[in-house]
Design a protein that fits this description.
Blueprint lengths: L2 H9 L12 H19 L6 H8 L3 H7 L3 H13 L16 H15 L2 H18 L1 H12 L4 H26 L8 H21 L13 H16 L24 H9 L1
Helix pairs in contact: 1-2, 1-3, 2-3, 2-5, 2-8, 5-9, 6-7, 6-9, 7-10, 7-11, 8-9, 9-10, 10-11
């Protein structure tokens, strides 16, 4: 057994029932978690049901008893990830609520107040914290798209599309109220999501190595700055949009700023 499979097996074996046997729902969840770990490490084409069974400590027959087809297993993975939520718990813990419901709850009050800055800041922060806690999510998303896997469409339906419709709907409302200038709401969402996801991917793929860390700011600051950049581009200069451009007072950055800033200071 590979070291990765051993780790997956050790990390995802839930406790047994008092009788010493794992109940069906616990076993099903264990298989889903082991499959997610292996798929995120090796891709879908590079992972077999035999390897999943081995890592989970069960036979392939047990896998197919819970999931009659691979498609059922894929659907269970998406359901698990879609319902993991953006809860504020520690790494590895999930909120148990669908992602979009968590976002709605997070920004509902700010949307009613028409506090544009808080709406975008809260969503950016929630997404970055989620990515930081759950690297598997982005890895599975990338593998599914790159391999042309059917999971890509399910990911898109349950995650990408709903966020575009939710946030894009808010942008459209603010445009009709005269707060935002006339621009395709979905382009606004794409620009916003692009900044957040690119930031998260850099942290996950490159910046674990301090030598490759170009930006070194906490998630709160990144969320605030991405929000300011976006609002400066979409807020109407007069009327209902004027209040959104009143920039909040920025806290002073400590000595550990971004790598680029530090390099600039050295050159001087």
């Amino acid at each position: 057994m590979s070291k990765q499979a051993e780790t997956a097996r050790a990390d995802h074996t839930p406790p047994l029932s008092p009788g010493g046997r794992m109940v069906a729902e616990e076993r099903r969840l264990q298989i889903v978690k082991v499959a997610m770990r292996l798929f995120s490490e090796r891709g879908f084409r590079g992972t077999t049901t035999k390897e999943i069974a081995h890592a989970a400590g069960v036979s392939e027959a047990i896998i197919f008893r819970h999931f009659a087809t691979k498609e059922e297993l894929y659907a269970a993975i998406i359901d698990h990830k879609s319902c993991a939520g953006f809860g504020a718990g520690p790494a590895g813990e999930e909120s148990g609520h669908p992602v979009i419901d968590t976002i709605r709850a997070c920004v509902g009050d700010a949307m009613e107040r028409r506090d544009d800055r808080e709406v975008f800041r809260q969503i950016a922060l929630a997404m970055m914290e989620h990515h930081s806690r759950d690297h598997e999510f982005l890895r599975l998303l990338l593998y599914s798209a790159l391999e042309g896997h059917q999971l890509a469409q399910i990911f898109w339906d349950k995650n990408v599309r709903v966020l575009y419709e939710f946030l894009g709907g808010y942008v459209g409302e603010r445009q009709r109220e005269g707060a935002f200038r006339d621009v395709d709401p979905f382009l606004v969402v794409r620009a916003f999501n692009g900044a957040i996801i690119h930031h998260s991917l850099n942290k996950i793929l490159w910046e674990r190595d301090a030598a490759r860390r170009l930006v070194n700011v906490p998630a709160e600051e990144a969320a605030r700055e991405f929000t300011e950049i976006l609002l400066r581009g979409i807020v109407a200069e007069t009327g209902a949009g004027a209040s959104s451009l009143r920039r909040e007072k920025r806290p002073k950055r400590d000595a550990g700023g971004s790598g680029a800033a530090k390099n600039k200071k050295k050159k001087r």
